[in-house]
Amino acid sequence: MKSKIILLLFLLLPGFLQAQYAVVGNSEDCMNNISVYSVSGTPLPATYIWNVTGGNVVSTGTGTVSIDWSSVGSGSVGVTLYDVSGAVIGTPSLTVTVNPLPQPVLTTDFTNNCVIYKEHEGQVIPTVVNDTCWHVCENGIVHYFANPVNVGSSFNWNVTGAQSFVAISNNEIEVIWGSAGNGTVSVTETDGNGCVNTVEKCIVIIESPQAIITAFPGDVDCRLGGVITVCLEQNALFFGNANLGNSGSPIVSWLWDFGDGTVSTHRDEVHSWQTPGIYQTTLTVTNACGCTGICYVSVEVDPVNGVNIECPTPVCQGDTGKYYTDAVNCSAYNWVVTGGNILSPMPYGSTIQVQWTGGNGNGILCLDNTNGTCGNYCPSETCVEIPIISSTSSIDGPSLVCIGSQTKYNVPAMTGCVYNWQITGSSGTIVSGQGTNEIMVDWTSAGTSTISVNYNNALLNCGGTANLTVETKQPFSINGPTKGCPGVDVVLTANNPVNVLLDWTITDASQNIIYVGSGTGVPDFTITGWSYPSGTYIISALDNSNSYCNYTASITIEIKDPPPSPAMPVGDNPICPGTVHLYSGTTMNAGYYLEWSVTGGTPTIG
């Protein structure tokens, strides 16, 4: 009886031992996550042959395996165990549920795909930009959102190139962008299963326009500060202008706020204040890219009324007008004219005669009482604008345009005039604005055209003409990778039908031109072994032959450092032919897996 019991235990022992072995590790994991698995209860020494479904073996160690889960759903980790004699002593396995990664969707409340312009040889020429980045405005405030598809997810944000950013909620931030250059917005989502994924968007920060205020009376530059003094109920003349910045994008809207509840959307405006005090007059300009520039000037309104100038009516260029003031008993009448000549002899009296010679704009007539020569009135300069109907004018707008583009053209607005525009040549069509001082033209084909406008004031029976020659050409562009690594060749191809030679440059995130390559002058361009540090760069091609409508085309490329080299493999050396040996390697960075290659043998796993 005792011998039967011993035999039974001997027969049960292999199955009993096998039952002691188990694969230990995460039974629930995330796609693309690297996890380590081991075997519990393993006798030593032992040989392990791993088999995995739904994932890739990253590395193996003594009794362990690292797996990168590559497929969503059900996966498994199994291992065959051999003792020193080569006998199988166990085949434990573990079923693993692989959850999908969250897929955060990054959106924003502001992007633009406007045409960027650059000045070249006195012309403002469009630039073709080939990138997938979002374009934002210098110093602009933009909101970014992560789409909360997964209930219970949390979001972690990172921004570069900004002055600051704040979280509005779990999935929304507000960014105040910095100066022109490059930046990034990235968001990392962690879902309820602990799975993590990050998305990133490159940002190109374009220079915003700068508003400029010119005012009469006063000689104040709003960019430098200062105060304009005007009299109670006295008209002040404000003229809007703008520095377009490196985007070259034209101004499409003007907004004046005079600080007394009055606003205007005209480029130039006349305004008076009915209550004494200090007011802040603000001009906000917005360009076609949606970027704004703001400038302020302080206006001090004197409690005393100023002198008046009567009869500021429109005139024809070359005509003579007679003007007077109701200010009496002045010790001197200091008349000042812009855009005309005073015909009255000196010393001037309360009435003055002016011949208006100025063209392409209005004249200004002022009576200067800043020295108090008219003692009963506030000490300020009173100015009025005299609309002049010029006999000749000039058309403002680009003279070199791209096929398929729409551009604006205008002449100064002249009081009471009707405008008749024409385009000779087959490449342009007026789509809006006929009868006004500004039109929109659609350019459909290559060629040379002439835009002309006749304007006439029927009441004054005078008018004038203006002409502009416009050349329409096709654009060129460049194509290439938007991401790369240091030391890797970057190959750029020009969409260059005329096959002209191009000059190539590289600009860093601080807008510094850091490279003009040895390949300059060829249509296509290869940067051999990228040698600059990680970051965002703009690579530009310049056409100095003027064969295209754009002088330059560019592409944005993001350079990221490669992962560090893996550790040297560990395993048997020397070996016997025909035998199976185990080798392991380790990555130095999480998120990367190893690719194995073998010469002189055949891998069984890994």
Description of the structure:
With 606 residues, the chain is mainly β. Helix content is 3%, strand content 51%. The protein has 1 helix and 53 strands. Strand 23 (251-257) and strand 24 (263-264) form a beta hairpin. The chain starts with a helix and ends in a 22-residue tail after the last strand.
Distance between the termini: 51 Å
Helix content: under 10%
Q: What does the overall shape look like?
A: elongated
Cα-atom radius of gyration: 38 Å
Report the mean per-residue pLDDT as an integer: 86
Question: Which structural class do the helices and strands define?
Answer: mainly beta
Describe the largest sheet: 7 strands, mixed
**How many strand segments?**
53
- Low-pLDDT residue spans: 1-17
Strand content: over 45%
Question: Total number of helical segments?
Answer: 1
Query: What is the chains' assembly state?
Result: single chain
